[in-house]
Amino acid sequence: MKVIVEADGGSRGNPGPAGYGAVVRDKQSGETLAERKGAIGVATNNVAEYQGLIAGLRAARELKAETVDVRMDSKLVVEQMSGRWKIKHPSMQPLAKEAQELARGFGKVTYEWIPRERNRQADRLANEAMDGAEKKPQEKPAAEGDKQPHWSGATGEPTRVILLRHGQTRLSVERRYSGRGDHELTELGLHQAEKAAERLSKTDVAAIISSPLQRATQTARKLADRIGQEVVTHQGLIETDFGAWEGLTFAEAAERDPEVHRRWLGDTSVRPPEGESFDEVHARVRRAKADIITEYGGSTIVVVSHVTPIKTLLRQALDVGPQFLFRMHLDLTGVSIAEFYPDGHASVKLVNDTSHLS
After folding, report:
1. Residues in CB range of 305: below 8 A, 6 or more apart
2. Is residue 277 predicted with pLDDT exceeding 80?
3. Is pLDDT of 147 > 50?
4. How far apart are alpha carbons 333 and 314 in whole angstroms?
């Protein structure tokens, strides 16, 4: 399928209350196939423009488009995504990376600048998103000093993501690769999950989002039962597919495929036999993060997942290279916290805290 994506974003104040809009059309008939809009809190025009592009590419992916012609009235986004302009501003870089990763999922993507009058539908959607945000009840005024920007320059209300690794399973006891295998918690694992739930129940949580594998959902439900919420699952939070190494120990996998295993330990593009590379995990976790922030932006949420997705979210928050994956240790039911701001900044507040188990 060949589609056209028209995207726009705006900010009333620059930075100020911001929103985006995106339209996906059938290239041959011009028929509107999808519309997307959303408010993103306080952000700049450029951040909103990128969010519109990302929303449009995501909608095109959902429609299983093969070729995408992007049309925007933001010359900056068009030139940067076309590779003709460098992406220098730190708030633009993670958004551009996300858009580039989405674009790589299509057979072909082109970018064209169009004047604003030819982008009216996306512009209307962006303004509707900003209008809706302005109609929300205003928060109580902050005390003097509370409105100072984050020390890094981040602006807007962050999405606070509490990351919780699942409890113990039989494979974690035996230190075996445990990816897509759907293993339940041991008795100790259930106890660990209960202790984590007791700790996190003291936090005002807007949502509990879990990997669909039962070791994660069992852990998540301990918290959900305590605070009276449902568990929402997201496929993007599933553990790495270790393929033929599933259920093997480190030594067994190294003996079975010595050369591949050696390269896999230092190169995130290498796949285990019949499995998934860490680069592929990185891309799908970034998509999952974008989905979650679109749905729950500006609130505190708990994400219950596995070692690699949690490490990947921390890596994205820190904006560091892939070697981070090999140098970070995460314990069972370890708690980490990352905050993601609407302007692209992020902050890591806690890593692998297991004080609730002591």
Report:
1. 163, 164, 165, 166, 210, 211, 216, 237, 238, 239
2. yes
3. no
4. 16
Residue 328 CA neighbour count, 13 Å, CB half: 22
User: How do strand 67-72 and strand 108-113 relate by DSSP bridges?
Assistant: parallel
> Of the CATH numbers 3.50.50.60, 3.30.230.10, 3.40.50.300, 3.40.50.1240, which one belongs to the domain with range 159-357?
3.40.50.1240
Active site (annotated) includes residue 6: no
Answer whether 239's CB lies under 8 Å from 179's CB: yes
Q: Could you give the CA distance from residue 185 to residue 333 in angstroms, rounded to a whole number? A: 12
pLDDT band, very low/low/confident/very high, at 42 (cuts 50, 70, 90): confident
Read out DSSP for 197-220? HHHHTTS--SEEEE-SSHHHHHHH
pTM metric for this prediction: 0.61
Per-residue exposure over 317-338, b if at least 16 CB sit within 10 Å of its own CB, e if not? beeeeeeebeebebebbbbbbb
Exactly one of 49, 239, 276, 339 is catalytic; which is it? 239
Kind and range of the H or E run holding 42: strand 32-43
Q: How far apart are CA 288 and CA 310, in angstroms?
A: 12
CATH number of 2-133: 3.30.420.10
**At residue 29, what is the residue type?**
S
List, as one string, the DSSP characters of 267-322.
-TTPPPTTS--HHHHHHHHHHHHHHHHHHHTTSEEEEEE-HHHHHHHHHHHHT--T
Read off the DSSP letter of residue 62. Answer: H
User: Mind spelling out the 3-state secondary structure of 239-271?
Assistant: CCCCHHHCCCEHHHHHHHCHHHHHHHCCCCCCC
Any catalytic annotation for residue 239? yes
Query: Measured at the alpha carbon of residue 116, what is the angle toward residues 114 and 121, in degrees to the nearest 5?
Result: 100
Out of 57-66, 67-76, 338-347, the most confident range is: 67-76
**Cβ neighbours of residue 184 under 8 Å, at least 6 residues apart?**
169, 214, 215, 218
CA distance 224 to 238: 19
C-alpha torsion sign, points 68, 69, 72, 78: positive
CB proximity list for 350: less than 8 A, separation 6 or greater? 335, 336, 337
CA 311 vs CA 278, 286, 307: distances in Å? 11, 12, 6
